[in-house]
Amino acid sequence: MTVQTLAGLDGFCALTCPQPDREICGAYVGDLLSWVMGRAEADNVWITIMTNVNIVAVAALADVSCIVLAEGVKPEQSVLDTAEAKGVNILQSARPIYETAVLLAKTV
Amino acid sequence: MSEPLKFTYSVDGDNFTSAGQASVQVKKVLRRLGLDPETIRRVSIAMYEGEINMVIHAGGGEAEVLIHEDCVEIILRDKGPGIADIEQAMQEGFSTAPDNIRSLGFGAGMGLPNMKRYTDDMQIESQVGVGTTITMRVNL
């Protein structure tokens, strides 16, 4: 499944999607950035509630397919602009983290 | 053996939001050179963790990346406070990062362990009050 397809599913929406064709493979959930960099794998969906600009660097360097911000949290526009410029996809889910992960597991 | 390709970057100690710029630059260079994605991922994560450490603890520093025929070498030098107990600092979960850094999602005590995890060799030279030099190697 591609990030664009995920973004089109009920419960998810794209905040910025500069690389819509990236393939999704597995997922990782976490808010501690170094923990995510140590454990997430390339092409994972990364579910988090962190919204500061460092998530963009972490996503780019860990090479995840997209970030999903759970709980309906929204980053500042500057974070979305940085993500767009760095080719990092950011999606949003209004559901809590656990429910977002369950929904993802059922659909991917 | 030919001379290694060498890149040097200055890591700005005041700007936490721009931390990672050097790592992102290195990632682009390695991509252009056609290295395999997992090697690129390992190098860039190890270097980013090092950059973050320099910003949090040392007020910045400099990063040097050398691309040899058989490995990528990353040398991070700072003139920060130094690491008193390297063995303790290498333990997962041990951190001296302040609360404001933790609220950003860093400071979980995973930086140095991640750098070791993602590299084939890591050497730390540190002197309290003088600074720290970390040399990492990822084999190609």
Strands, helices and their partners?
The complex is a heterodimer of chains A (108) and B (140).
Chain A: H1 3-8, E1 12-16, E2 27-29, H2 33-39, E3 45-48, H3 54-62, E4 66-69, H4 77-86, E5 90-93, H5 97-107
Parallel strand pairs in A: 2-3, 3-4, 4-5
Antiparallel strand pairs in A: 1-5
Helix pairs in contact in A: 2-3
Chain B: E1 5-12, H1 21-32, H2 37-57, E2 60-67, E3 71-78, H3 86-89, H4 99-102, H5 111-118, E4 121-127, E5 131-139
Antiparallel strand pairs in B: 1-2, 2-3, 3-5, 4-5
Order of adjacent strands in the largest pleated sheet of chain A: 1-5-4-3-2
Largest sheet of chain B: 5 strands, antiparallel
Give the low-pLDDT segments of chain B.
Answer: none
CATH architecture level-2 label of chain A: 3-Layer(aba) Sandwich
| Whole-angstrom Rg of chain A | 12 Å
Q: Please indicate the count of domains of chain B.
A: 1
User: What is the 3D shape of chain A?
Assistant: globular
Strand percentage of chain A lies at: 15-25%
Largest sheet of chain A: 5 strands, mixed
